[in-house]
Amino acid sequence: MAPKETGIFTFSEEYYDFREFRIDPGQTLLRIDKFLLDRMQHLSRNRIQNAIKAGAVLVNEKEVKPNYKVRPEDLIQVVIPKRPEENVKVVPQDIPLNVVYEDEDLLVINKPAGLVVHPGIGNWKGTLVNALAYHFRDVDLPLLDQNFKDRIGLVHRIDKNTTGLMVVAKTDYALNHLAKQFFHHTIERRYQALIWGEFEEDSGTIRGHIGRHPRNRIQRTVFPEGEQGKWAVTHFKVLERLYYVSLVECQLETGRTHQIRVHMKYKGHPLFNDDRYGGDRILKGTIYSKYKQFVDNCFKIMPRHALHAKVLGFVHPRTEKKIVFESELPEDFATCLDKWRHYVDARRHKNTLE
User: Could you give the residue ranges of the DSSP H alpha helices within 168-242?
Assistant: First the structure.
């Protein structure tokens, strides 16, 4: 008799699902790939085997081979990339890409501001996925399921007006391997953000569930008691104090939508010029004509929220060695930051003379 699971736990993220099975006591043995094929019938055997080989399937918190036979009381945990929406047809578009690294398994790109990651309502064309479809137009990706070709191997995203590094899988195996790393929070992701005001401490950790705002559906908010939303953790370190604003490094432990932007607002330090979370107005400093003019000029130089995905590190699916990429601040961010440095230095010099 085939094994039965005594309980199923399902957890869904934007790009992957997590499923958990507890095997019923007293059941007969069965290969794990056959077991999962019976219970996840939307997946092919090849995709299930790739997930197992990539370490995205754990039995009792350990990796196994496809021929492992499930046993009574086994706990099986599966991280599997989602299929894209069937009605989304990607049109290849010749949109310039800043490719930082590419090999037969994956590529890393440096996303500019203003580029939406994938097609959706209001953005069916002109997205990163459209650009990737064009980039891969003459490339044979035999291991990438055709449905995933329409998504081009995405396992994470960054906001439209956030700049910086993203990794894209080119094979089903790499897709599973990277999804596993994102799910288990072993990916290294470090951002730089310009925020209003200054933290008292030089470093710290922000914890708090993040979910949709109950009154504003385009915003997320923190639910400190965990009554709603998903658990989120952001580690921060102050890199530079400029009195009115600060440059901080944020390291993500989890990857919730708008996580850094929401956590910073929650702590009273919205990102500079973040129009969705209140950073697009003067929040620090006296509002007088010269200072207001200076801030408005900074807003014009960087007409978006000040957030850049600077460092991205992960274990390469083929070599099993960690690789780390780093990108410089984009021109608008760097120029705005320099203007703040000069402004604060001038103010300090004036105060010293007085």
Answer: 172-183
Helices 32-39 and 45-53: crossing angle, nearest 10°? 130
- Beta strands 57-59 and 75-81 are antiparallel
Domains parsed from the chain with CATH numbers = 5-81 (3.10.290.10), 99-174 (3.30.2350.10), 188-353 (3.30.2350.10)
CB 332 within 8 A of CB 302: yes
Beta pairing partners, 194: 247
Give the Å distances, CA to CA, from 169 to 14, 105, 112, 162, 306: 16, 6, 19, 21, 27
| Token pair of 280 as six digits | 């697009």
**Contact (CB, 8 A) for 190 and 250:** yes
Residue 168 has pLDDT above 70, yes or no: yes
Is the Cα torsion angle 308, 186, 17, 221 positive or negative in sign?
negative
Catalytic residue (one of 33, 159, 172, 274): 159
Cα distance between residue 332 and residue 184, in whole Å: 34
Spatial distance between the Cα atoms of 58 and 79, rounded to a whole number of angstroms? 9
pLDDT surpassing 80 at residue 22: yes
Task: Name the pairing type of β-strands 233-241 and 220-223.
Answer: unpaired
d(CA 245, CA 320): 40
Q: What is the pTM of this model?
A: 0.88
Portion of the chain with pLDDT greater than 90, in percent: 66
Apex 217 CA angle, 215 and 220, nearest 5: 90
Cβ contacts of 87-91, under 8 Å, gap ≥ 24 = 88/119, 88/150, 89/150, 90/119, 90/129, 90/130, 90/133, 90/150, 90/151, 90/152, 91/125, 91/130, 91/133
| pLDDT tens for each residue of 219-237 | 999 998 888 899 999 999 9
Please name which of 107, 113, 111 lies closest in space to residue 98, comparing C-alpha atoms.
Answer: 111
Query: Is 103 an annotated catalytic residue?
Result: no
Residue with tokens 């005594």: 6
Map tokens 């007409």 to a residue: 303
CA atoms within 13 A on the CB side of 89: 1
Closest to 285 measured CA to CA, from 242, 315, 318:
242
Rounded to the nearest 5°, which phi and psi values hold at 289? -55, -50
